[in-house]
Amino acid sequence: MPSIFVFDAYGTLFDVHAAIGRFRGDAGPDADRMSEIWRTKQLEYTWTLTLAGHYVEFWTLTERALDYALARVPSVPKTLKAGLLDAYFKLDAFPDARAALKALKAAGHSTGILSNGSPAMLKGAVDNAGIGGDLDAVLSVDVLKMFKPRPEVYALVTNHYKCAPRDVTFVSSNRWDVMAAVSVGFCGLWVNRSKMPDEYADFAPERTVPDLSSLATIG
């Protein structure tokens, strides 16, 4: 695979449901449902705003999505909002993500993040996870004021590394994200953590893996 490895952040390196995990006892039996709605609306807002030609920082959309999710699932106390947002700002990294990044760097590969997250959000997550030393770049869509899957976003990678698309392995747990990366010429690697059915047949990933453990063996 190409030797520049660029990762999506949320859901790929960082566990987007770790926030609710810290408050599961207080959130009650509908905790997971609320968290799923929160994540779904967060992504939906990025797509609809970008299609309409607008931009609102990802952190603001994250809070708005949480407000919506709490309204949809009233059994989860709204008093948890501040704690949930703080937890999202300091999300846990998947254990396999830490191992993969460290192994790739040790093997001499370039590594980076390309994310919808704002620079402050990404710094909070990277610092909390302690993975900054294993990343060469953390690229945010904020400089463009538009979200994935616009092709201009993926060009941030080739512009930063001064490389051709074929030199990049793009790693994401979001199949739509992999589709967009493949469409601009990246080698796509889909991390199918949730065992979802495949889609976007015209833009197939080079590989599909259940987690990031296999990357720790790349020399």
Shape summary: globular
Task: Give the CATH topology of the largest domain.
Answer: Rossmann fold
The CATH architecture category of the largest domain equals 3-Layer(aba) Sandwich
What is the topology, as strand order, of the major beta sheet? 3-2-1-4-5-6
- How many extended strands? 6
Low-confidence stretches: none
Structural class: alpha/beta
Q: Work out the count of structural domains.
A: 2
Using the coordinates above, name the CATH class of the largest domain: Alpha Beta
Largest beta-sheet characterization: 6 strands, parallel
Estimated radius of gyration: 17 Å
Percent helix: 40-55%
Could you name the CATH homologous superfamily of the largest domain?
HAD superfamily/HAD-like
**How confident overall, as mean pLDDT?**
96
Termini distance?
10 Å
Strand content: 5-15%
Sequence of secondary-structure elements: EHHHHHHEHEHEHEE
| Count of DSSP H/I helices | 9
Write structural notes for this entry.
The structure is a single chain. The protein is of the alpha/beta class. It has nine helices and six strands, in the order E-H-H-H-H-H-H-E-H-E-H-E-H-E-E. It has a six-stranded parallel sheet with strand order 3-2-1-4-5-6, with helices on both faces. The longest helix has 21 residues. The termini are close together. The mean pLDDT is 96.
